[in-house]
Specification:
Layout lengths: L2 H5 L3 H24 L6 H22 L1
């Protein structure tokens, strides 16, 4: 998810997106532990998306 897309979301949508991304990350991590997934770079993309959304939420809380 791109930063420009994240800025357009509301706080509730960001929280929902964060929960969904965290679930996706844990699912991918478990699948990769059991047997290697086709594209291990997916883990990096999802982890960075989680960080972007979390950073935006923190930024909005501080304002």
């Amino acid at each position: 998810m791109k930063q420009s897309e994240i800025k357009n979301l509301s706080v509730a949508e960001l929280q929902e997106q964060l929960d969904q991304l965290k679930r996706t990350y844990t699912d991918l991590k478990m699948a990769h532990t059991i047997s290697p997934i086709d594209n291990p770079l997916q883990l990096r993309k999802v982890r960075r998306s989680v960080a972007r959304v979390a950073a935006e939420l923190t930024k909005r809380e501080l304002q």
